[in-house]
Specification:
The structure is a homodimer. In chain A, helix 13 links the parallel strand 9 and strand 10. Chain A starts with a helix and ends in a 6-residue tail after the last strand. Chain A contains 13 helices and ten strands. Chain A has two domains: 155 residues, Rossmann fold; 112 residues, Rossmann fold, CATH 3.40.50. Chain A is of the alpha/beta class. Chains A and B meet through helix 9 and helix 10 of A and helix 9 and helix 10 of B. Chains A, B: It comes from Dorea longicatena. Chains A, B: Provides the (R)-glutamate required for cell wall biosynthesis.
Chain lengths: 273, 273
């Protein structure tokens, strides 16, 4: 009985901006009974070019905000924050917090046949080598090639995902990696699944593309079941969206990628938390 | 005598990131006796997609920080902050504060022969229509065509200014404007002078390109003279650089565009101000 309120409490999900909606989409699909409170840090996006200290500070503020919404678990739906802040904030807060990197690394190890794995991400994610470390924990002999793709986030955020220019930027960043022996490629930034079909077409069928969002939702499901805090109320799930800036722009973007009509997005002052 | 300390005090210059260095460069050239304290808000860059409320808040914090450095005047070397925050902060602080838009508008009005003026800027700058209003104050019959170019800032910040891809993005954004009758074009974002030669080549000789940075330095000079606070000490000028994040990356960029060797850049926590 003690867990009843916790069971119906929401999952907190956060990202630097709209990218984490690709993770939210997977949670909606795979855990349709769960309520979600999403926070997009649109006032401070992008995270990928910023320092570890600031990413930890931003993550703490957001977790404090999400806790005011009484969430039962938190998903850091941002690779940069997962790479730089997860380890620290996990120790500081008393609810389950998961990131996207461990699930992504596990999926890549499961899929690869030759142990050669590519990782695309922001500058900060690649520099942290967190994917490499997590992959090697599971497969010590793996070879991991990381490549920062800093223009991918602005291209997606500015609505250029389907534009020809994006194809050229893909070629600039990834021509070397295409010549390598990798058979598995991790989309190590939550914006990148929005470029998935283009990246798949660029590498061809010999390379398996891993989207950590799917794996993360599976991990979350398992944690909720293990801790007996899954929502079994049978009520329709509620989704709430908060941002630190420019709510209208966010709403438009959210509606273009979620299987759900986002009719209200609230802007809050994240520096107050 | 009362003004002696004020005379040798520095000019405070700020921008969302590295763009304002193009204004700093003009101040160094035209006011070689003036000390400068520069602040780049690299933790919160870019400003162009963010809301007026946040831009005002960011600007207030930065002005409070610059005042701790005892500056005698402030240059908002960012078009977005000039467009959205200058009017408000001018009323709130007791030192001269100038932006880049009024000087840019004045130069455009001086150069145009047919009264058709183009303005390139961030989404926030163009949406504010501040350039249009300032131009029409001086030339009520002017026709002003604004165009937001949101990918220009990340292209410059990621070091793609001289890349072929930038030429294609210029064509995507500006092909309509090239077909128009404009004879004068304002580079209404401090990053854009770094794309100047490409934009000039794209429009050809019939279009005069206005860089508000140059005009802003001239305005500053006039204000310092009028208020009798120009630095006439004859001491070599000192330049100090502060950022809110990732000082090393900033330093590298600064050294690529300033006629001065930036050997030290300090990161501060701007949210403390």
């Amino acid at each position: 009985m003690e867990n009843k309120n916790r069971n119906t409490a929401a999952i907190g999900v956060f990202d630097s901006g709209v990218g984490g909606l690709t993770v939210t989409r997977e949670i909606m699909r795979q855990l349709p009974n769960e309520n979600v409170v999403y926070f997009g840090d649109t006032a401070r996006v992008p995270y990928g070019s910023k320092s570890k200290n600031n990413i930890i500070r931003f993550s703490r503020q957001i977790i404090r905000f999400l806790k005011t919404k009484n969430v039962k678990a938190i998903v850091i739906a941002c690779n940069t924050a997962s790479a730089l802040a997860l380890e620290t904030v996990k120790e500081e807060f008393d609810i389950p917090i998961i990131g996207v990197i461990v699930p992504g690394a596990r999926a890549a190890v499961r899929e690869t046949k030759n142990g050669q794995i590519g990782v695309l991400g922001t500058e900060a994610t690649i520099k942290s080598e967190t994917y490499t470390k997590e992959i090697r924990k599971l497969m010590p002999e793996a070879e991991v090639i990381g490549k920062p793709c800093p223009l991918f986030v602005p291209l997606v955020e500015e609505g250029f995902a389907k534009h020809k220019i994006t194809e050229e930027v893909i070629d600039i960043y990834l021509s070397d990696m295409r010549k390598s022996e990798i058979d598995t490629l991790i989309l190590g930034c939550t914006h990148y699944p929005l470029l998935r079909s283009r990246i798949m077409a660029y590498f061809g069928e010999s390379v398996h593309i891993v989207n950590p969002a799917y794996e993360t939702a599976m991990d979350l499901k398992q944690i909720l079941e293990e801790q007996k805090i899954a929502n079994t109320s049978g009520e329709p799930a509620a989704y709430d969206f908060y941002v630190s800036d420019a709510a209208e722009k966010f709403k438009k973007f959210a509606n273009s990628i979620l299987p759900y009509d986002v009719d209200k997005t609230q802007a809050i002052d994240i520096e107050d938390y």
